[in-house]
Amino acid sequence: MGLRTLKPADGFMDLTPGLDFLPLIGGKLDRRSVARPPTAPAGQPRPGAPKSTKPPLSNTGPEGTLFYDVHIFYSTWYGAPQMDGKYIHWDHILVPHWDPKIASSYPRGRHMPPDDIGSSFYPELGAYSSRDPAVLESHMEQIGTSAAGVLVVSWYPPGLADDNGEPTEDLVPAVLDAAYRHNLKVKRRQHFSVCEVVCV
């Protein structure tokens, strides 16, 4: 099975059943045309809205709006020979099927980038390095275009990495700076896991 790079011109409508029922303008979703409660001028409470001391979760510009209640996960563990001297994380192991009878009929080993990265979709930037400043800027621009306002950066404690990667804590300042340049927020690191909060 070959990988395919998808671009907006490829017609995502075919991949998203029901999306054609949403209000579109020039091929883009028109957020303003979706039915909403009445609005008020900036700084004024919405008619009939209860008083709240909570800050707004989203900024209010009609174009280029970022929704700070929409989070997107961002991983910094990818590497490429041009920047890192080798592929990192793109060449992870072929994950075996959970049923040993079925697993035996599939190959074993590692993915072989740049053509085989173990993904149904191939990044338009190729098998990139997370350390490439141009890639980081492009990613922040793409995230801003998606309207997501908060990055949740996946990283291990200092000096640690998963079995397929290398430590990346030194990239966190660059991610923070790039996010700031694009008006994106970065979720702060907490000393407990999601499971400790949700699974209790």
Instruction: Report the radius of gyration as a whole number of Å.
Output: 21 Å
Strand order of the largest sheet: 3-4-5
Give the termini distance in whole angstroms: 42 Å
**CATH homologous superfamily label:** Glycosidases
Query: What is the makeup of the main sheet?
Result: 3 strands, parallel
Number of strands: 5
In the CATH hierarchy, the third-tier topology is known as TIM Barrel
Strand content: 5-15%
* Shape call: globular
List the helices and strands and how they pair.
Elements: E1 24-25, E2 28-29, E3 67-75, H1 81-84, H2 100-103, H3 133-146, E4 148-154, H4 172-181, E5 185-186, H5 194-198
Parallel strand pairs: 3-4, 4-5
Antiparallel strand pairs: 1-2
Helix pairs in contact: 3-4
Folded structure, characterized:
- This protein has 5 helices and 5 strands.
- The chain has 200 residues and is of the alpha/beta class.
- The protein has one domain: Glycosidases (TIM Barrel), CATH 3.20.20.80.
- It has a 3-stranded parallel sheet with strand order 3-4-5, with helices on one face. The protein has a two-stranded antiparallel ribbon with strand order 1-2.
- Strand 4, helix 4 and strand 5 form a beta-alpha-beta unit.
- Helix 3 crosses helix 4.
- The chain is globular and about 50 Å long.
- About 16% of the residues have low confidence.
Search tags:
5 strands; TIM Barrel; signal-anchor; two-stranded antiparallel ribbon; 200 residues; globular; 3-stranded parallel β-sheet; alpha/beta
Kindly summarize this structure in a few lines:
It is a single-pass type II membrane protein. Helix content is 18%, strand content 11%. The chain is of the alpha/beta class and 200 residues long.
